[in-house]
Amino acid sequence: MTLTRKDFPQGFIFGTATSSYQIEGAASEDGRGPSIWDTFCREPGRIHDGTSGDVACDHYHLWPEDLDLLRELGVDAYRFSLAWPRIQPTGSGAVNEKGLDFYERLVDGLLERGIQPYATLYHWDLPQALQDIGGWTNREVAHRFAEYAEVVTRRLGNRVRSIATLNEPWCSSLLSYDIGEHAPGLRDRRLALAAAHHLMLGHGEAMQAMRALNTGADLGVVLNLTPAYPASDRPEDLAAARFADGYANRWFLDPVFRGEYPQDMWEAFGADVPEVQAGDLETIREPLDFLGVNYYTRSLVSAEGTQKPAQAQYTHMDWEVYPQGLSDLLVRLNREYPAVPIYITENGAAYPDERGSGETVNDPDRLAYYQAHLAAVADATRQGVDVRGYFAWSMLDNFEWAYGYSRRFGLFYVDYQTQERTWKTSGRWYQGLLNRAPVAAD
Ligand code: PNW
After folding, report:
1. From CA 193, how far away is CA 215, in angstroms rounded?
2. Mutation test of ligand 1: which of 118, 123, 346 has the most ligand atoms closer than 8 Å to its C-beta?
3. Is residue 327 lining ligand 1, measured as CB closer than 6 Å?
4. Distance from C-alpha of 191 to C-alpha of 127, rounded to nearest angstrom
5. Alpha-carbon distance 270 to 241, whole Å?
């Protein structure tokens, strides 16, 4: 069964995605201030291979070549994020024009190549100066974020197709302040839930500020959603799966779409719940033009903990390959939440690619992952879910957060010594599907 564009609705957008800290490098150029990831990477033991995003893919300098590759790939759209500390080095006040200029060149470069820009305002690189006042646990940071959103939207809003406020607030709050795996690396559920609330509040305030500018860009938010399946129908497994779903998904979906926190989770979190002020939930519920969904895997949950089915396949992240989870998730969103256009803003897989001697890096597992997950998206659209587009994560191998450079997600292989980019077989396959350029691989 070969997938083609005809398996997707008319006008369906195919793209690929990256984020600022993961690819740009140039960490102290043109007035960029330090971010929490610069700090975190310098703390011993935080990053598995001891690296940082100081240089990364050097995209800050190589962006014209990278945009040429995107053109050759044939994507309709490119999703990137802006580094807040390039634009406001301390997270508030005067704008660093050189930082904004970089993104203006990038957006214009995309448009010149016929590629639609999809911007994300916050993909985790918080200005360190804002962490110094408590980061997202401080309500003030939500207001600072709305101001930053307004600055960017004034400059670029008339040229980008779409602006997402936050990428994956679950990661910026629970993974960062409760699980402690991402910057700032804390383990405190009360702080994590305060951070989550202020992230969502910042999202809502930013939506309102950007709406008022009326630029024509679609406005929304990107959530990473991990469907939780019970390991059996034992009541204790069902309860554990419901908690996992609340922790990963409903804690963010319910405030955004219903203006309320899920009652069961509010009770389960007990004394750790955030302070919610009058009007906060109305702000958070500001209507969206789209929901971005990042999907990588599911969780299989029992009362004893998460399970790993033995017969399943796993990526280099040790995440189960479970395409059915994506169609199930999309159908569920459509059934349980108000209808809103959905983009798959990230989906992809890490595998330990090797450069080899050929002119293409052979990555059959990644190619199979993309085929299966794109088929799941097509299936969901046939079941009536309004999915408007799909972005492969990622265009380039890049700095994979706590895993440093040890995990490769790219459609293009990056040699970090030379900064050479090499096509992978999955990239050629995607190019063939998009079919704006000659088909080169099957
Ligand atoms: C997402 N988890 O991160 C991010 O948006 C990307 O920047 C990242 O490169 C990509 O997925 C691959 O990891 C996640 O632990 C990181 O569940 C961790 C988790 C989920 C998403």
Report:
1. 33
2. 346
3. no
4. 18
5. 19
Give the model confidence (pLDDT) of 357-390 as tens digits.
989 999 999 999 999 999 999 999 999 999 999 9
Q: How far apart are CA 57 and CA 164, in angstroms?
A: 23
Q: What are 133-163's pLDDT values in tens digits? A: 999 999 999 999 999 999 999 999 999 999 9
Q: Is the pLDDT of residue 441 over 60?
A: no
Closest ligand 1 atom to the C-alpha of 348? 12
DSSP state of 404: T
178 CB within 6 A, ligand 1? no
- Gyration radius from the chain CA atoms: 20
* Residue 112 known to be catalytic: no
The model carries a pTM of 0.97
Residue 346 CB less than 6 A away from ligand 1: yes
Q: Is 23 in the pocket of ligand 1 (CB under 6 A)?
A: no
Q: Could you tell me the pLDDT band of residue 435, with boundaries at 50, 70 and 90?
A: confident
Rounded-to-integer distance, Cα 157 and Cα 211, Å? 10
- In the reported structure, the alpha carbon of residue 22 is separated from the centroid of ligand 1 by a whole-number distance in angstroms of 11
Which residue's C-alpha comes closest to atom 8 of ligand 1?
Answer: 400
**Whole-number Å distance between alpha carbons of 171 and 305:** 20
Other beta carbons less than 10 A from residue 381's beta carbon: 18
